[in-house]
Input
Amino acid sequence: MFRLFEKPFSKIDTEKKVEIAVLIGVCFLVYFFNLGRWDLWAPDEPRYAQIAREIVNRGDWILMHINGSVYGDKPPLFFWLVALSSYLWKGFTSFSARFPSALFGTLTVLLAFIFGGRLYSSRTGFFSSLILATSLLFAQFSTRANIDATLSFFVTASLVCFFLWYQDGKAEEIGRHRRIGSLLIYGFYVSMAFATLAKGPIGFILPLLVSLLYLFVQKDHKEIKRMKLVPGIPLLLAIVLAWYLPAVLMGGKAYVEQNLLKHTTEAYRSGWTHPQPFYYYLYTFPVAFLPWVFFLPSAIVLGWSRSKVEK
Output
């Protein structure tokens, strides 16, 4: 299914074109339609929009400010996107502030389509991405001026690049090398870098741990050597430090303490900024996965029964 990137769109078969068109249409209706019909909601949306406004007004794209004071709580990527969106849509409005989230939510849905198609079939990719697009919590984050949709896209992109690189490596071993496969590992590191610029260290910690754990479970330790860690990690650091070093030089010691120590290190040490009991997701997931949660029990039963039949 990653052949979507290996040949022109005009050569993709009609069924896949229709599926892509349907997914884009659903995302337009769910995310973009009425995106600017209500005011920005407190607390995050007005604050994030104001930070982006001050980026544009000051012309300072390195050190962020809010109401004239230096802002060091979050990295800059999302605020850059909102600022660029204001140029695209000619001003700061609720639509322009939410546009990046709607865009990256749509791109994440298309990634799910590609990934599901590669893992199983085009039909599976289509329905899994359709379910993702219309799940309550995902739709909510894709229609708010919030960092989560942007972070989700880059984390998903990094993992998709990693897995497709891994699969193409296996295909190469049996003589079915794909030209694009060897470059995907660099997409893994670049995507992690942008995820880090979106919301800090979680942007690279999560995908890196998942990928290494996957290779460990697969008992495929030799692939760790093929991950190009030596050029990949420096590439990731170069992208992140291209912003962070100038920000530190401009912000000084106080900025380092606020951004790196208070809002990053302390958050991990204290168990994240929103500690919850261990059963938290047991009662939040059903609501977040509406309306598809009602189909989950039957899907589990169907999957289990099919596995028994195959055995």
